[in-house]
Specification:
3-stranded antiparallel sheet; F-box domain-containing protein; F-box_dom
């Protein structure tokens, strides 16, 4: 017999006057991820909260139009994660209405993930649009390969929803996530847990721009205004939050700063398990990232693009060397695109050599 759901705060009522059971689920449904984690720490109902999170994940995927258990099985076998609007809705309920699935898999797992998806008659492979493969470019300038992305594959579910499978350039599936144009989207759902890399700001509908030299349209005034119409505040600078910026430091001070280097296992991340797996771990190495930002001195503005590297802090030396050998201690953001002189199109042979 399970223990009654008791909370040490009056949020769900004192012991002598507990919140009715039929209302608990409705109350929990409004709570963002950081609040669920806090409540689980002060309550004897941790198991019920974990079960609520599992139901929230499955319900969100069902509303999008896919079979949640089938997709979570694919993710468990390949180490893939879900990000984008679907993960945002799970982390901060009511912030958006997902209408597609964005799946990110580790380097070398795209073929296996594709075969597993196609093994379910509910999915069929479709052609990726040209813009998903080639970014806008000018001759003798950089070619931006979707930042941290090896390839993009698209599928269509029988419900009509599209699923985009993105293969990371790293053995970690998270590398492309840290190039998203703002921090509100930097969340993910694994096969066993939900993670938010900027949990407090995201749950308060606040984010930082992740400025990049390429794809300026994502930072256009119209795009920022669109986020504002959805109720978010997207800041171009973290100066409004604090002035004492911390540059390189193994322990980030603020967690909401353009200048800090964050890591995927630091204390500013919020993560909560919803499965029976004890201590689930993300595949691949830990990653370290710094957001992109602009620095203005006089009439000159310098843009610092986002940086994502392998974090080897605390690793045994041989493990660190092996990780660097496998994925490379690489800054994943821009690659030179060799063009054919006659047609000014990408030379496919030389283009492949530009990958790390």
């Amino acid at each position: 017999m399970s223990k009654p759901f008791l909370a040490s705060t009056r949020f769900l009522g004192p012991k002598e006057d507990l919140c009715p059971e039929d209302l608990r689920g409705h109350i929990l449904a409004y709570l963002p991820l950081p609040d669920l984690i806090s409540l689980s720490r002060v309550s004897s109902g941790e198991g019920e909260i974990k079960e609520h999170l599992r139901i929230r994940v499955c319900r969100t995927l069902t509303k999008v139009g896919v079979d949640p258990e089938g997709l979570l099985s694919v993710m468990r076998k390949t180490g893939a994660v879900i990000s984008g609007s679907t993960a945002l809705e799970v982390v901060a309920p009511g912030t958006c209405t997902p209408n597609d699935i964005n799946l990110y898999c580790p380097q070398g797992k795209a073929v296996e993930a594709s075969e597993l998806l196609l093994g379910d008659d509910a999915y069929e492979k479709i052609r990726s649009p040209e813009r998903a493969r080639l970014s806008e470019r000018i001759r003798v300038e950089t070619f931006d390969l979707n930042n941290g992305v090896a390839q993009i594959l698209r599928f269509k579910h029988k419900s009509g929803v599209s699923l985009t499978l993105t293969e990371s350039l790293s053995h970690s599936p998270l590398a492309p996530i840290f190039f998203f144009h703002n921090t509100v989207l930097m969340n993910c759902i694994t096969s066993d847990e939900v993670i938010s890399f900027y949990p407090l700001s995201t749950s308060s509908l606040t984010g930082l721009k992740n400025s990049r030299s390429a794809r300026p349209s994502t930072h256009s005034p119209d795009k920022v205004k669109q986020w504002e119409t959805w109720g978010f505040n997207i800041f171009t600078s973290c100066d409004a939050d604090h002035a004492n910026h911390v540059f390189w430091n193994p322990t980030p001070k603020h967690g909401f700063c353009h200048f800090e280097y964050r890591s995927t296992n630091d204390g500013h991340c919020a993560r909560m398990t919803f499965s029976s797996v004890r201590g689930p771990k993300l595949p691949g190495p830990n990653l370290c990232w710094r957001l992109g930002f602009d620095v203005r001195k006089g009439n000159v503005t310098t843009r610092n693009s986002p940086v994502v590297v392998i974090s080897t802090t605390g690793w045994p030396k041989d493990c660190a060397m092996k990780a660097v050998a496998e994925s490379g201690n690489i800054i994943w953001h821009t690659y030179t695109a060799p063009l054919l002189s006659d047609s000014e199109t990408i030379d496919p042979c030389l283009w492949k050599r530009c990958f790390p």
